[in-house]
Amino acid sequence: MPKMKSRRSAAKRFDVTGSGKLRRRRQNLRHILTKKNAKRKMRLGQSAVVDAADVKNVRRMLPYA
Asked: What Cα–Cα distance (Å) separates residue 48 from each residue in 4, 5, 22, 54, 63?
C-alpha cells in the first residue's frame, strides 16, 4: 500500500512538538505593522499551540502527527 500523503497546505502551517502537541503561527504579522506596538509584534512572532477543538481536524490532515 502506498504512503499516506499529507495535506501540503497543512504541512506548511503546522508543526509537531516533541511532546506531540501541534504548533501554529499567529496571524496579523504580515502588513500594517506601523500601528502595532513592539510588545504586540513580539507576541505575534511567537508560536502558539493549536486549540483543542481543532486538533482532531489538523491531525487528520497530517498523517505523521
From this structure: 27, 25, 9, 13, 21
